[in-house]
Amino acid sequence: MSAPSYPRHVAIIMDGNGRWAKRRRLPRAMGHKAGGDAVKRVVEACEVLGIECLTLYAFSSENWKREAEEISDLMNLMRRFIEANIAEFIAKGLRLRIIGDYKAFEPDIVARLDDALERTAGGTRTLAVALNYGAQQEIVRAAALAAEEGEVTASAIEKHLYTADLPPLDLLIRTSGEVRLSNFLLWQSAYAEMIFTDVLWPDFGEAELRAACEEFATRERRYGGR
């Protein structure tokens, strides 16, 4: 059972798959596969720690600039991950959410995601996956939708964010030693706590997530107050 001061909503920038593979003289695709294994470990750890919502940065709108072979590897990994885990998600009451314009993916992937979203809709915990996502684009989209309805206010924009139905973001983690947000959840991170770890994503698991939650629990959150 989680401590009362653990976060409800954790987001992770999963970084370091390529470096993990390079250090082991393995193909980059093997790093992404190991990263997929880490996703499963962390999803399971969230259940142990009582974390209500986990949001993962899986494929950014900028990732289309990568080599075609690597993009193909990532798409195939996505197909396999859905097939391998959907039954377990349903059994464990895990709701899948997609943030971003996932309709830009190949039709069979879109169909698999739509099916997974429908089949897991009744879940009580949430795994939100950012696919073809960019925070700046999200904010522009939300502001435009707000403008169509009337005055553009912070609350009007928030209503149209992809994350509108998720708990407020409490903790954002980035692995692999990089210290930047890379266009991820910029609006939602306004008052989130942040932890940057040198651990490469394929090596991240329950122990690392628990340590981050314990660090979160020591912080005083004042939301701009004193």
Describe this structure in words.
The chain has 226 residues and is α/β, with parallel strands linked by helices. It is built from seven helices and six strands; from the N terminus they run E-H-H-E-H-E-H-E-H-H-E-E-H. It has a six-stranded parallel beta sheet with strand order 3-4-2-1-5-6, with helices on both faces. Strand 3, helix 4 (107-119) and strand 4 (125-133) form a beta-alpha-beta unit. It is globular and about 55 Å long. The model has no long low-confidence stretch (mean pLDDT 93).
The mean pLDDT is: 93
Ends distance? 31 Å
Biggest β-sheet description:
6 strands, parallel
> What radius of gyration results from the CA coordinates?
17 Å
Q: How would you sum up the global shape?
A: globular
Percent helix range:
40-55%
Number of separate strands: 6
Quick overview of this protein structure:
The chain is of the alpha/beta class and 226 residues long.
Record the SSE blueprint.
Layout: E1 9-13, H1 17-23, H2 28-49, E2 53-60, H3 68-91, E3 94-99, H4 107-119, E4 125-133, H5 135-149, H6 154-159, E5 171-174, E6 193-196, H7 206-218
Parallel strand pairs: 1-2, 1-5, 2-4, 3-4, 5-6
Helix pairs in contact: 1-2, 2-3, 3-4
List keywords for this structure.
single chain; about 230 residues; alpha/beta; 6-stranded parallel sheet; 7 helices; 6 strands; about 15% strand; EC 2.5.1.-; magnesium; UPP_synth-like
